[in-house]
Inverse folding.
């Protein structure tokens, strides 16, 4: 049976977490996090997971899907919660597989927060870092394991983890896992799991390949859906500015200044473009982090942390690296370059306007990207508003830049030496007048 939109909506009978039947330990944790009511995906999914059903959940990051699967799984594992030091008493019972390291870390952070009043253990493993400390955690025993596919197989091959007691499998962002070519790894992982288990699959989109995956991995699944793939496009204000390719960085800075944008995620298509733009922004004194697949894991985490803590103003990212990143209250996303795949546009703009909040997505579109823009318009079945770049007033006092681009982690009490040059393009004349000089600085 499939749960269509109407049936799914009818399931939303509980309006509080308590009514969903969650244990006091979990309710206290949710209270501490300031969650006052379950989100639609939580209202729908939690009762079905508690009832033991396999589930296909169509929900994007930002809808509260992590809690939708974590909370009922914690509840179901409570009978096994124990404080014994013996690893044998802490076998992996819930396995959550995610496509990227960033999402794995984020999901695990949520697990830790929701689980904080229970003696269930959890850890996260992902590639790009040393295996030793991960091995030690696994050998000590954990009930909940969040992992990326490749590293999980490495650990399973090295016998630091046994998956024969897994009762719950979660495939998070399954569409992205398929996009990234993880299907063979997923099949190998599946071979290590008991056939008798409960499987939950979450995906932002449900095309034939996902339905095929669900057919082979899930048993008689119910389907719940909260966000059709265009939902983000309805919540987020989207603006297109026509800009020459060479003038894009000035345009970016101009929009940030004019709209007084405190922080933004800036998307490029390629790693090379991300590096180049990030370096140019840094040279201008704008605190900028760069995140893409070729960056060392520590660099990626530092950039993401700096951004989440507000120390970094702009985070330049490629699509895969930014996928699943959850930044509360991210006010704005820039498409510095439009993505080749129209679907990635929806994923990108879904980083802002989370959980019903209004967001802003600004695309800087050059003549060369005309076809990509047409493809996106077609995909989201909406016209995108085009407007001229917003004007900014020219500054009266040229000595102000150090305030505008101040690094938040700089010690506020130390006297600063005046900068010798205008370091931020926000203080330079409007974009058209100096587009040529911008390019030279690249
Ligand atoms: P997710 O879709 O799981 O990535 O969650 C998106 C964001 O929503 C995260 O920052 C969660 O902490 C937050 N969140 C999840 N459930 C709720 C809730 N019921 N009330 C308020 N915030 C929530």
């Amino acid at each position: 049976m499939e749960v269509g939109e109407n049936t799914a909506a009818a399931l939303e009978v509980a309006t509080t977490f308590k009514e969903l039947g969650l244990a006091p330990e979990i309710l206290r944790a949710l209270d501490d996090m300031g969650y006052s009511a379950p989100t639609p995906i939580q209202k729908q999914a939690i009762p079905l997971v508690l009832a033991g059903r396999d589930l296909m959940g169509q929900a994007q990051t930002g809808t509260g899907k992590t809690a939708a699967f974590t909370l009922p799984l914690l509840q179901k594992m409570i009978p096994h919660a124990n404080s014994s030091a013996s690893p044998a008493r802490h076998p992996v019972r819930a396995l959550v597989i995610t496509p990227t390291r960033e999402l794995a870390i984020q999901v695990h952070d949520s697990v830790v927060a929701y689980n904080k009043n229970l003696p269930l253990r959890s850890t996260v493993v992902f590639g790009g870092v040393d295996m030793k400390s991960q091995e030690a955690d696994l050998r000590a025993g954990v009930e909940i394991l969040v992992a990326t596919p490749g590293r999980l197989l490495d650990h399973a091959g090295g016998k630091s983890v046994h998956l024969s007691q897994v009762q719950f499998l979660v495939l998070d962002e399954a569409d992205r896992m398929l996009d990234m070519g993880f299907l063979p790894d997923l099949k190998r992982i599946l071979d290590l799991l008991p056939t008798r288990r409960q499987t939950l699959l979450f995906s932002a989109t449900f095309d034939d390949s996902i339905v095929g995956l669900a057919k082979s991995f899930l048993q008689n699944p119910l389907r719940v859906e909260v966000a059709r793939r265009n939902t983000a496009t309805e919540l987020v204000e989207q603006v297109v500015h026509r800009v020459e390719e060479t003038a894009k960085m000035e345009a970016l800075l101009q929009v940030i200044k004019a709209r007084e944008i405190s922080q933004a995620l800036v998307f490029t298509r390629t790693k090379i473009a991300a590096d180049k733009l990030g370096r140019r922004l840094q040279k201008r004194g704008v605190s900028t982090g760069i995140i893409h697949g070729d960056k060392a894991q520590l660099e990626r985490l530092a950039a993401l942390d700096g951004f989440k803590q507000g120390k970094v103003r702009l985070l330049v990212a490629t699509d895969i690296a930014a996928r699943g990143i959850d930044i509360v209250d991210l006010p704005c996303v820039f498409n510095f370059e439009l993505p080749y795949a129209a679907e990635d546009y929806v994923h990108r703009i879904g980083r802002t306007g989370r959980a019903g909040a209004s967001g802003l997505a600004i695309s800087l579109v050059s003549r060369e990207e005309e076809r990509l823009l047409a493809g996106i318009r077609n995909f989201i079945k909406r016209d995108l508003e085009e407007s001229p770049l917003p004007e900014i007033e020219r500054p009266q006092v040229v000595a102000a830049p150090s305030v505008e681009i101040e690094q938040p982690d700089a010690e506020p009490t130390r006297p600063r030496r005046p900068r010798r040059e205008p370091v931020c393009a926000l203080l330079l004349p409007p974009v058209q007048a100096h587009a040529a000089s911008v390019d030279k600085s690249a």
Q: What stands out?
A: The CA atoms of residues 306 and 417 lie 24 Å apart. The radius of gyration is 23 Å.
